[in-house]
Each structure stands twice: as C-alpha cells, then as structure tokens.
Amino acid sequence: MPVAHKTGTVKSKQGSNAQSQKAPAAKAAKAASKKKDEEDGTETGEGDEWMQGKTLIKPPDQLDLTEAELKEEFTRILTANNPHAPQNIVRYSFKERSYKPISSVDQLAVHFVLEGNLLHQDSDEARRQRAKQGLPEEKATVETTVAEKPETPAAGEEDAGDAEEGGGEERADSVESKAGKKEQKITNQFNFSERASQTLNNPLRERGCQTEPPPRANFSATANQWEIYDVYLEVLQKQEKNKEKAKAVPKKDDDKGKKKMMLVETQSDDITKVAKVAKIIERMVNQNTFDDIAQDFKYFEDASDEYREQEGTLLPLWKFQYDKAKRLSVTALCWNESYKDLFAVGLGSYDFTKQGRGMLVFYSLKNSTFPEYIYPTPSGILCLDIHKHLPYLVAVGFYDGCVAVYNLKEESLQPIYKSTAKSGKHTDPVWQVKWQKDDMDNNHNFFSVSSDGRVVSWTLVKNELVFTDIIKLSLEGAVSEGPEGVQLPIMACGTSFDFHKQIEYLFLVGTEEGKIHKCSKAYSSQFLETYNAHNMAVDAVKWNHFHTKVFISCSSDWTVKIWDHTIRTPMFTFDLNASVGDVAWSPYSSTVFAAVTTDGKVHIFDLSINKYEAICQQPVVAKKKTKLTHIEFNPVYPIIIVGDDRGYVTSLKLSPNLRKKPKEKKGQELPKGPEVEIAKMEKLLSLLREPEISNA
C-alpha cells in the first residue's frame, strides 16, 4: 500500500507537469487539495490511540460553578466611543464672552498612518517615470477561465498533445487576445485601491423664540340697505363740505387749496387711528437707542463714593430739547405727582427787552427726543404748577399779566380758563402760581403773585375765572401823592411765594426789594412778619417738606439763606459766588437742598454732613455762557432736572453720598417716616441756639 501510494503520487505529479502548460491554475489547486485531504486522513487515522490516552487536568484554584451559573449570560455592550478622549474641553465663545464646554467630542482614534504616493500604472505620470528610469513597460495578462471537463485518459493525452503542438501559437496570440478583450477588462486586484474617510457630522442646532399672540376680537355685523344708504349720505356730506371750503380759498390758489383740503380730510382720520400705536413704537425705539442711559438710571451706583468721605457726584442722563423752542429760556419746571416720569416745562424769556412768544411742553423720561404735549402761547411763560390730585390741570402765569388753566384731556391747544382785563388780570408779569385746596363749594382754586404787588386767588367757576385779592404788598413808609394831594402807598413787587405745608392760611412772599413777608389769608391789611432777607430780588422762597418752622430763600445777591420763621435772622447763609437762579428742598431728607447758579453749576448741600460747604459742586452745561435758571427734585426717583436759558432740560442722577439716610445707633431705635427728618432738623436748630444761650 505505501508503495502504491507513492507511485500514484508520482503519476499525479507527472500528469500535472504534462498538463500544466494547458490546464488552468484552478485544476492544479484542486489536485493539491485532494492530496492534502488524503494526508490529513492518514494522520487522523493514526492519532486515535493518542487521543484515548489524554486526560483533563483541573487547576486547584478553579471555581466550582453550578449549572445555573454556567448557563447565565453576561452581556457587554461595545461602543465606538474612545475611552481616552477628553470630556472637559472648553472653547472661548465670542458671542457670550465666556468659556463654554464643547458638546461634541471627537471619538476617532488613529492607530496607523502611512503617507505615500501611489500612481496608476497606466497613467501618464507612470509612463514618464518608467521611460526616465529605463524600465520596460509591463503588459497586463488577461486571465481566462476554461470550463472544467471530466478527466479521462484519452482526453488527458489529447490535451497533452495539443499543448505540445499549439502551446507556442497561444503565446504568440496572447497580445492579440488582450487587445480584443480590452472592453471586457475587469478590475485588477493588484493596482486598484478603494479609498474612504470618515468625516465629523456637525451637531444640529435649533433656535426659536416665543412671542405673545396678537390680540383678537370677533366682529360680526349685518349690512342692510338703510346702513348702506347712511354711509353714502356721510360721504356726500363730506364732499359738500370740501367744496364749500374750496370756494372760500382765493382764485390764485384754487387748485392747491382743493388738494390740501382733500388731503387733510382723508389723512386726519388715518392719523388719529395710528397716533397711539406710533407713540408706543417711538418710545420703544428711543428706549433701545438710549438703552445705556436707561440702565444707568435704573441700576448704576457710583462706586467711587466709597472712597470719598462725604462728597458726591451727579451722573448726566437724558437731555430734553424741542427744536422750535431753541431761542427760549426755561422759566419754570414742575413734576407731575401722579405720573412720576412726566414733567412740565415753561418756556419764555427773562430778557424783558426781547419779549415774544412762549411755549408749554410736557416731557416723559420714556421719550427724551420729543415732547408728549405742546402748547404754543402768544406771551412768554414765567411760572406754572400742576394740580396734585388732578394731574391734567395745569395753571400757568404769563409775562403779560394773564393767568390760564390748561386741560391735557382737551384736544384744543387753547386754555380752558384765561384771565382778562375785565376779570381782574395782573398788570405786570406773573412770577409764581400755586394750586390750593378746593373751597367750600368744591371749586378748584389757585393763587398768583405779580410785580404789581397783588396776591390773587383765582377760582374756577363754570366757564370763567373769579378773582379775589388776598393781600396787596406795600413798601413800609413809602407813599406817593395822588390826585388832590391824596397820599397813596407805593406797591412792592412780588417775585415769589409759597404756602405752608400744614398751616393752610400761612404763606410767605418774596419781593423785588429783597424782603420776605409772612402773611395770612385772613389778614389782608398787614403782614405777620417781615424779614430783611437779601440785598436784591428774592428769586425763590420755599418751606421745608418736613420741619414746619424752616424755610429757605435765594437771591441774585449770590446767597442762599435758611430761616426759622419764629426768628428774624437767618440760621444759615451760604455764598455761592454767582447769582442764584433757584433753590429746592429734597423730598427725601429735611437737611438736603440744591441750588443752581448763573455760572452753570449745581450746588447740593446736606446740613447733617457739612454745615459750611456743599458736598457736591458740579458744572452741568456744555458752554460757559449758559446760565442755569431752575431746578427740581423728582418726588420718587433719585434724580433732578435742571433748566437753562437756551431751552435745554438736563436730568442728573444723585450718587449714593447725596442721598444718605441716618444710621441707627446701638440700643437706639430711630423713629420711622417724616419724624426722622424732623428730628434731624431739630438737632441742627438746637446746636445753633446753644451759642446764643451761652452768650446771654
């Protein structure tokens, strides 16, 4: 058997050698696989005995598991995530101005990189390199497959003979066969490579915003012939009115007049519909434009006050201006008590040689670019006052001696009440007006003071103003001779006045001669007290909001004085080195007041901190020649408004040092409310009276 096996193998080798020239490579591989199977069979047959004698050896530390534990399956989830990839990478976001963690982490790990340069052998560059190196061009061989047939000895001999005879011919025709079968060429496994790369998919981002749905309203109506008829009648009536108005226009401007009247009629209805919406949009645009100022008004606090011991600063906010009022001076300022962002500005002139028109405008902090209300006046305005409980009523005093009352609810630009020569108007400029409580018949009334020496009470009765002279200011000891030698007292010129906050009948009047008279509504013939206050005209006199005895006055003689109405001499005197245009008490502290001077500076004092100097002295005008005329504190917000002689109104925010509140001491509880401010002022008064007692 072994010998036969060897001869068989030799024959097979010889046969294979004889047929190798003609038979394909697949046939040779088949014979080799058969030979391998025979060898494997002999080995497996011989190795049975060795397998029978093999024994399994169990390690001593092997666990003994039950059948249930052996059958239990443990699943492991394999992911494509790279365990070594960092998860805390941050990048700087220029949009949010901060470092933000990256949500997408690159999980791709590169194990092997080989940079090379491969060229296709049939490309032009490959041919150039072969020609340069002198290498022969390689000819691709085309593999052909021949169908396998059952082997027989005769067939084998014929194939061998054919191979001997025709082998040379087939080799000669190999080039021709390649050229004929180029169209059927398949992809070569040796010079073809497939390239692929994995790219990073950018994460999807969604951005959305939610808005409030617009208001909706259901409307339904039925249109019949009568309603259609009425509408046509209204249109016809409008056309007839337009024709009548067009006839009244002169012939030269006939065509222009017609067009204008038609445009006014058609546009008026549309404008009234859009006016409210346009005003809201205008405020929105302005608040976006001046957003930095709005943020400062609401949130900014000057941190540098911590490093200043007692001094404070003023932060400029909005600047209010109306183009048609550039040449007019700010002659009056007044905040609205009900709407804290609304204030009125009176415009006129203090140059009495250039008197002309005036204007009453209302501004809001929500819109600094254009006034909310505009009322042009034929004469310059010198003073105004807004009613505390009826914020739509405004009393105004004019240079020509008239007083008037405007109603903001009315669409008309004319006042609803105005004094005339028949109704007792003043003969000289009206310097101040003040609303008072309603009379016994619940009629509204206000008071006015003028250079003609009269303090007059005006009552709103139906459609007219009824006047009553409260007191006539006269100079003491000064008389003039009238007709037939009658001695007439010379009248003093009133320039300012103010009513007591608690005692209704008590009021103060400042005069052009520099004196201050304490008067009563009940006595019209004499003064309760006269103070020799200033050397020039008293520009303002005002009672303290908290303490009932204290009032303040200012004058063009450069001084500001604080008084106790029970004492004829001033308690404090401050020289500001320039004419003082106006002074105002703060609404939040009994010891804080502010004054403006003609050199463009604002002076703020706090007597509880410094009794001798201002804690803030700051220029607030752009040009040196600009003079400040008036100042007012907002009743709620920590801001002031300042007017100048060029028609500008500037708003300023007080720093924290200018609005300090008293600190509580250990073991002592301060009273709450206005009692705190009264206690502060009482303490100052007691300190001032101590030297007088010691000298006595």
TrEMBL record:
<feature type="region of interest" description="Disordered">
    <location>
        <begin position="1"/>
        <end position="61"/>
    </location>
</feature>
<dbReference type="GO" id="GO:0045503">
    <property type="term" value="F:dynein light chain binding"/>
</dbReference>
<keyword id="KW-0966">Cell projection</keyword>
<feature type="compositionally biased region" description="Acidic residues">
    <location>
        <begin position="156"/>
        <end position="167"/>
    </location>
</feature>
<dbReference type="GO" id="GO:0045504">
    <property type="term" value="F:dynein heavy chain binding"/>
</dbReference>
<feature type="compositionally biased region" description="Polar residues">
    <location>
        <begin position="186"/>
        <end position="197"/>
    </location>
</feature>
<dbReference type="GO" id="GO:0036157">
    <property type="term" value="C:outer dynein arm"/>
</dbReference>
<comment type="similarity">
    <text>Belongs to the dynein intermediate chain family.</text>
</comment>
<feature type="compositionally biased region" description="Acidic residues">
    <location>
        <begin position="39"/>
        <end position="49"/>
    </location>
</feature>
<feature type="repeat" description="WD">
    <location>
        <begin position="531"/>
        <end position="564"/>
    </location>
</feature>
<comment type="function">
    <text>Part of the dynein complex of respiratory cilia.</text>
</comment>
<feature type="compositionally biased region" description="Basic and acidic residues">
    <location>
        <begin position="135"/>
        <end position="151"/>
    </location>
</feature>
<dbReference type="GO" id="GO:0003341">
    <property type="term" value="P:cilium movement"/>
</dbReference>
<dbReference type="InterPro" id="IPR050687">
    <property type="entry name" value="Dynein_IC"/>
</dbReference>
<keyword id="KW-0853">WD repeat</keyword>
<dbReference type="InterPro" id="IPR001680">
    <property type="entry name" value="WD40_rpt"/>
</dbReference>
<dbReference type="InterPro" id="IPR036322">
    <property type="entry name" value="WD40_repeat_dom_sf"/>
</dbReference>
<comment type="subunit">
    <text>Consists of at least two heavy chains and a number of intermediate and light chains. Interacts with BICD2. Interacts with CFAP45 and CFAP52. Interacts with CFAP53.</text>
</comment>
<dbReference type="Pfam" id="PF00400">
    <property type="entry name" value="WD40"/>
</dbReference>
<keyword id="KW-0206">Cytoskeleton</keyword>
<keyword id="KW-0963">Cytoplasm</keyword>
<dbReference type="GO" id="GO:0005874">
    <property type="term" value="C:microtubule"/>
</dbReference>
<dbReference type="GO" id="GO:0007368">
    <property type="term" value="P:determination of left/right symmetry"/>
</dbReference>
<keyword id="KW-0493">Microtubule</keyword>
<feature type="compositionally biased region" description="Basic and acidic residues">
    <location>
        <begin position="168"/>
        <end position="185"/>
    </location>
</feature>
<keyword id="KW-0505">Motor protein</keyword>
<dbReference type="GO" id="GO:0036158">
    <property type="term" value="P:outer dynein arm assembly"/>
</dbReference>
<protein>
    <recommendedName>
        <fullName>Dynein axonemal intermediate chain 1</fullName>
    </recommendedName>
</protein>
<keyword id="KW-0243">Dynein</keyword>
<feature type="region of interest" description="Disordered">
    <location>
        <begin position="123"/>
        <end position="197"/>
    </location>
</feature>
<feature type="compositionally biased region" description="Low complexity">
    <location>
        <begin position="18"/>
        <end position="31"/>
    </location>
</feature>
<dbReference type="InterPro" id="IPR015943">
    <property type="entry name" value="WD40/YVTN_repeat-like_dom_sf"/>
</dbReference>
<keyword id="KW-0677">Repeat</keyword>
